[in-house]
Amino acid sequence: MNAPATAPAITTPLERGSNELLIEFVDRWATATPDDLAVRYGSSAWTWAQWRERIGRLSGALAAAGIGRGDRVAYLDKNHPACLEVVFAASSVGAAVAILNWRLAEDELAYALSDSGARILFVGKEFATAAGAALDGETAPPRTIVVAKTGGDEYEAFLSASEPVSAAPDIAVTDAALVIYSSGTTGRPKGVVLSQQALVAHTRNVGPLFKFETGDVNLVAMPLFHVGGICYAFFGIRAGASSIMTRTADAATLIRALASGVTHTFFVPPVINGFLGAGEAGVAALAGLKRLGYGASPMPLPLLREALETWPDIEFVQVYGQTELSGVAVTLSPADHRDVSRPQLLVSAGKPVPGTELRVTDVTTGETVETGEQGELWFRTEQAMTEYLNRPDATAETITADGWVRSGDVGRVDAQGYVYVEDRLKDLIITGGENVYGPEVERVLIEHPAIVDAAIIGVPDDHWGESVKAIVVTGRPTTADDVIAFCRDRLAGYKCPRTVDFLLELPRNASGKILKRELRKQFWAGRNRDI
Fold first, then answer.
1. What is the pTM of this model?
2. pLDDT(364) > 90
3. Which of 204, 344, 367, 387 gives the lowest tally of CB atoms within 10 Å of its CB?
4. Class of the CATH-defined domain 18-413
């Protein structure tokens, strides 16, 4: 249901109608500072001019392979500059890139590849076998191009065989540029389609909050298959900062990268917790940062307080949003983090970013509620997704006729305009920054020969924020270890339950729906929010 047009909403200054394309992020600096460092990855590095030439060659190679406006390609690998190159090059010919989660199990990967309709798959060498197995039996499998950790691979040959080209003249800002798969509320992931316009608007609206200056170095460490990885990378690129990319986010790799002059980065809370737990070496590794963004899952208040005390000179930026909004819709500023007169702000998500309207609505009627009252958070912004790929019904359920995106999160806004996210309507668990939807795991659980009924809930976890718990009813004996192992054979590891409880029956309402709030209540008792 649409909220009435006259309902009040929180509105921040809008800057609509930009014709900027993604490739202009790179073009600008290839012209202005061609010899400055653009990207470093391990022992490899490229200036802006060199990087623009590589992207231009890749655009030409894609066009020669028949990839054009409206087509899609896929990318499957751990972090590698080639992923960014593919995104910029594909967008230059009007195509979109489906960046796939390398943690997916074979069945999940096969589904995403099929659903995306990708005509070319760029795949990291260590995932080539898994990709081949996932593609086995496909009637029209995409062309596969292997990307190695360093040069001398099919990918480099693909680039070198082509001449650099500029952006195609017929592309539009409304063309799709990314497809990011979000775990499915009905058992299968949904491909979130983000246009060039949405991604540029997000970078324009949120990037300045990180205040990049001449000489700053941006560390891109979070996985690029998340908006928290790929869209964060855009911030530094558009600002002209040098980017250092790490393939993984393990402690040793991050410490080495941070030691090379990094001034800005974005981490999920468990990574920050890991640095605190590493003692003096961990504390020293982050001490040189100017700004540290964090998000993708709530930061436990004790952890946030410890981080603020440990690194008094770092400016912390909390971000809240979702893939459907290209990433960030609400931020808590560095000043708000350090405002001792208002300690309650540390449990706030902050205020909407420029270019974003927010409405808090009654979950039944869709009408705007009074200030301070709880309701579903709706957003309207150029950052919004175009659609869920191949899912018109799901798209209509999420985007209203007048352009509001229903977040599925429940919260409130205080008199000063600060947003507090307190619960979820959607059956979503966020563990270590990864989204897990209960029905997706329940679909697998119910296939277990001993299980007759199952529910998945998120429970508090001091390290991961939430962890996945299965609550099952069985028809014959089994063990928690067996249930977990069954899931691990069929799902990405982060989606699998860490613990399993057994009940004689699951609580249900009169219509038969499982009362997950009742199941979660005992685990979240005494906490200031239910997520």
1. 0.84
2. no
3. 344
4. alpha beta
